Every structure is written in C-alpha cells, then in structure tokens.
C-alpha cells in the first residue's frame, strides 16, 4: 500500500517546545508536514526546534509566539494572541490542515489539595489555556478544513464533551476529531516521585515519543474519530 503524502499538510502544534510537543513536531515533520511551532516564552528553544526540523526533515517550520490565555472576549478585542497566532500561520504558510491542541496548564501546586484551596483566578487561568483557547483555535481552523474536505484535530487532554460534539458534527466533512489523554509521561516539565513507575501496570513511565506515535496514528487514519485514547501504561481503564 502506498503511503499517504503529507507534504502539503500544515501542522499547527500548540505548546510545542515541551517534551511532548517537541516529539509531536518531530513526528509530524518526519511525515513531510510543514510544522508551526507555537510557544509561550522560550524563544531559543522554539527557534532551535524549528531549525532542527528544517535541517533534519527538509520541510518547512516556523515559530509563532502566543500566550494561550489571551484570546479576548470577541473578534474585535484589543488583546487576542490566539487569533493573532492563527492569522500569522495563514500569512506565512496557509490554513492548517492538522491542529494539535497540546498547550496545557495544570494546577500543580494544588494537585493534592481540596477545591477550596484553588483560587478562582488560578482556575480561570488553567481553563483559558486548557479549554477556551483550544475551543477558539479549533473554531478558527474548522472553516478551511470543511472547505477542502479534510482535517485532523487532536486534543492532548480529556476534553471529552467538546471532542464528542466536534467529531459528531464534522465527520461528514472529512474531518476527524480525537483526543489523547496522557498520564505519567517522563522527560517533561512535571517531576514524578522515583517510586511512581511501580504504580504503573507496565512498570515504567511513558515517553513523549509514545504520545507522538499516537498522534501519527490519528493523523494517518481516516476511519477513527470521536475517540479519546489513554496513553498511560494501563494506569486508567477505559
């Protein structure tokens, strides 16, 4: 069977400079996709990743800085970095055909505390990154995906309701919508206790590359949609 041609695909990966994001970018570039490296603060990491992609895979790669908390209350809002991110991708490369909503924020300092200890401001910041910005960016990318009859939208989260609704409504337009729910992934910004891997059925932490492999499967298949795949070493039964 002939392999699909992804050389015309434009892949937008948010939160691309972390361990998982970097692996996703490299995996998509290996298919021949042009890659948009979205990042929040580390200019050097983003530029280094883009340069590596261009030299290693001979494909296009650009960096676009954007704070995923900042999308404004309307299309006319004075501060709207998420909208500006999409506009910059259109300007430099064209409309994304693959969107990987990877940017995320955890309430790390409150992880083991009660809900009363989490401030509304902290929750709202997390929500804007994990939900609001992902909704808006998907909304911005959908029209051109529908127009060409092709698209891949992937959430690195557990936004079950949004994923199911989008998948049901856009399957007829050739657009698949799936989610990846990673857990206990090593070599990322989150440090796990040394004994954590003993709690995982496969007896080890996951690798960022294993998230990327799942993304590639979702990109390549056109018959799998409306699914959330747990990449967690069997930690959480589906």
TrEMBL record:
Keyword Oxidoreductase assigned to the entry: answer is: yes
InterPro entries per UniProt: NAD(P)-bd_dom_sf, SDR_fam
Pfam families per the record? adh_short
Q: Which Gene3D superfamilies does the annotation name?
A: NAD(P)-binding Rossmann-like Domain
The molecular function terms of the Gene Ontology recorded here are: oxidoreductase activity
**Keyword Transport carried by entry:** no
Keywords carried by this UniProt record: Oxidoreductase
Recorded hits in PANTHER family, A to Z, give:
OXIDOREDUCTASE, SHORT-CHAIN DEHYDROGENASE/REDUCTASE FAMILY (AFU_ORTHOLOGUE AFUA_5G02870) (PTHR43639), SHORT-CHAIN DEHYDROGENASE_REDUCTASE FAMILY PROTEIN (PTHR43639:SF1)
**Family per UniProt?**
Belongs to the short-chain dehydrogenases/reductases (SDR) family.
> How is this protein named in the record?
Nodulation protein G
* Record organism: Lineolata rhizophorae
């Amino acid at each position: 069977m002939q392999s699909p041609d992804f050389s015309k695909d434009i892949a937008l990966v948010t939160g691309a400079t972390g361990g998982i994001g970097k692996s996703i970018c490299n995996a998509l570039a290996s298919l021949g996709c042009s890659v948009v490296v979205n990042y929040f603060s580390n200019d050097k990491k983003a530029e280094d990743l883009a340069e590596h992609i261009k030299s290693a895979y001979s494909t296009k790669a650009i960096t676009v800085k954007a704070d995923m908390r900042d999308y404004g209350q309307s299309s006319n809002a004075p501060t709207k970095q998420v909208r500006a991110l999409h506009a910059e991708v259109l300007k430099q490369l064209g409309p994304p055909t693959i969107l990987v909503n990877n940017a995320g924020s955890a309430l790390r300092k409150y992880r083991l505390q009660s809900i009363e200890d989490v401030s509304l401001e902290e929750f709202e910041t997390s929500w804007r990154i994990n939900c609001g910005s992902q909704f808006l960016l998907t909304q911005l990318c959908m029209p051109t995906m529908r127009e060409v009859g092709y698209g891949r939208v992937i959430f690195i989260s557990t936004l079950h309701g949004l994923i199911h609704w989008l998948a049901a409504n856009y399957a007829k337009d050739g657009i698949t919508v799936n989610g990846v729910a990673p857990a206990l992934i090593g070599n990322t910004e989150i440090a796990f206790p040394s004994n954590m891997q003993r709690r995982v059925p496969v007896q080890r932490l996951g690798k960022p590359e294993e998230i990327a492999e799942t993304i590639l499967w979702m990109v390549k298949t056109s018959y799998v949609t409306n699914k959330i795949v747990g990449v967690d070493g069997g930690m959480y039964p589906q």
